[in-house]
Amino acid sequence: MLTDWQQAQKFFSTRDNATEKVAQKIGASHFSALTLVPHLIPALTQLPIQLTVEMRNSQDLMQQVAQGTVDFAFVEQPVMDLSLSVVPLMTDQLVLAGGGDTWLLREVGASARAHMDRYFAQHGLPDNTLTITSTDVMLALLRTGFGKTIISQKLIADYIPYVPLDESFQRPVNLIYRAPLDANKTSVLETITQTLTTNFETQ
Description:
Order of helices and strands: HEHHEHEEEHEHEEEH
Oligomer: single chain
Number of strands: 9
Strand content: 25-35%
Number of helices: 7
Largest sheet: 7 strands, mixed
């Protein structure tokens, strides 16, 4: 009976090792999580990886990739860290959306917040502000007619009023990672770039 138990244990151990998936963590800014990531997940789940997706602001994501706690990340800021590899994907145009007296602000570290601060430097600081760490919540408020903010034109529904901003309010959308890549991460990178090329007009 002991021999049978040992054989069974060996069988399940071998099976588990054969089917074990390598953990891969992808980080996405709020913009990328709402626009790019939904197109990527079906393709990435076909790979032999255990996928985790986290949504954070661009500054946090660049730090996490540099520290090795996130494998790949989508950010909307210029990448100055020379230890990171950068794949330019597209350019995102920001607009001034909504109306009223209350400004809806993203937190410090979000790429949109940097553009908001630059806008305030040009036009004066607002009296009424509300800081929100979720683009989804900001969009929900805009849909109810409450507040205004600087946000991606790609996220604005047809019925949300907005004012165009000039080209200085464009931001780069980049995929970042740390090289060198092993075979699993190379497969992830290839899947990401191929899928986005198929679904989006990338640079």
